[in-house]
Amino acid sequence: MTVFVIAMKSEADPILYAMSEKTERNAHGRKVVLGKIDGRDVGVVICGVGKVNAAAGTQYAIDCLNADKIINIGVAGGLNGGTEVGKIYCISEAVQYDFDLVQLNKTPIGTLNEYSEPYLKLAVCPLYPEKRLATGDRFNDDKRDYNLLTDVLKADIRDMEGGAIAHVCEHADVPFYSFKAISDVAGAGSTTAQFALNLALCAKNLGENIEAIFKAVDNG
Question: d(Cα 60, Cα 54) in Å, to the nearest integer?
Answer without folding.
Answer: 10
